[in-house]
Amino acid sequence: SFRDRPRDALLFLPTPCCVEMSAPTINHLAWNQDQGCFVVAMSNGFRVYNKSPLSLKRRRDFTTEGGLGYAEMLFRCNYLALVGGGKTPQYPNNKVMVWDDRKNGVVIELPFPSEVKAVKLRRDRIVVALETKISIFTFTQAPQRLHVFETCDNAKGLCVLCPHASHSLLVFPGPEKGQVQMVNLADAKMAPSIIAAHETALACLSINNDGSLLATASEKGTLIRVFETRTGKKKYEVRRGRERASIHCINFSADSKKICVSSDHATVHVFDLEEEAKSAGALSGLLQARSFARFAVPCAYSICSFTAEGEIVVVCGDGSYLKCTLGKDKAEGHVEKKNFLELQSVAHGDALDDAGSA
């Protein structure tokens, strides 16, 4: 069964269409930091896939049939953060287990007084989200706690960590619902800055590759807002629809000119931020623009991201993999469909990299 937590930027929804599948079941999906791979936490272990072209990079089935409720990669290297989950958890859900795939085992354990909602990794930091706290540790053999920040209720474990080497930005919910806190981990003395992003509770957070832009969605799921992280100023506002929706995932394109958004309506919307900013003119992009492309997907739980060629890849909780190519008019295009669970063997040369070369 699905756990109450997001992905990457954001992943959450218990949905019947995803539960009705043959064992083993999928509990969590997440992109790695460069969105070139995705990891699947399952009822009997985890699997790592290359995004495009689709291939199975690593498969670990636990002999105890223990389940994972959450998994987070560190780029493409041999370290992953795992949290137990499902009907028969492999590990307690109040512990973060850092797995070394070279050693085929856990090398770091971090216990907590309550359930771990999410984990984010950088080469130098481990960030752990509990329901009302964010804790930051050194990524060392014996991790040291550096900071603890209080949040409002954060059952989805929302937090995003900029992967850029020169920008240690961490974003997570503020002390009041609808607020976002931003912290520069490189400057421990600097107080968090707060953005009043929405009137209702947050549902999804995402930052672009260099950490200059932040995208947010509330539990209403009708509007996506994009802010400049340096100034906290709202730069864009786009409308996904007028009906409420649970937003699972928001991601920026490599050039930060587009965003894709997946929701429990089993759809993925694509927005062109640059074109809407031009059309808004003096309003500097603050136009409630609608998506220029929309794709139906087979499952209500999905994550989405762009390829370097501008295609959109969608990975679903029922094992579906879709690569969507926009047409000339952007409104229509070709959709390639596969099932990533059907890949049983690791592709030649597709093992995870050593931590030093990730």
Which structural class should the secondary elements be placed in? Answer: mainly beta
Largest sheet: 5 strands, mixed
Strand content: 35-45%
Query: Helicity level, as a percent range?
Result: under 10%
In spatial order, strands of the major sheet run 17-18-19-20-24
Q: Any idea what the shape is?
A: globular
Low-pLDDT stretches: 1-22, 282-286
User: How many extended strands?
Assistant: 29
Span from first to last CA? 32 Å
Mean pLDDT: 86
Question: Mind telling me the C-alpha Rg?
Answer: 19 Å
Annotation field: number of helices: 2
Structural description of this entry:
With 358 residues, the chain is mainly beta. The protein contains two helices and 29 strands. It has helices spanning 16-19, 273-280; strands at residues 26-31, 37-42, 45-50, 55-61, 68-73, 79-84, 95-100, 105-111, 118-121, 125-129, 133-138, 145-150, 160-161, 169-173, 179-184, 193-196, 202-207, 213-218, 223-228, 234-239, 247-252, 258-263, 267-272, 288-290, 293-296, 302-306, 312-316, 320-326, 333-339. The strands form seven sheets. Strands 17-18-19-20-24 form a five-stranded mixed β-sheet. A four-stranded antiparallel β-sheet has the order 1-2-3-4, with no helix packed on it. The protein has a four-stranded antiparallel β-sheet with strand order 5-6-7-8, with no helix packed on it. β27 and β28 (320-326) form a beta hairpin. The longest helix is centred in the last third of the chain and has 8 residues, at 273-280. The protein is globular, with a radius of gyration of 19 Å. The two termini are 32 Å apart.
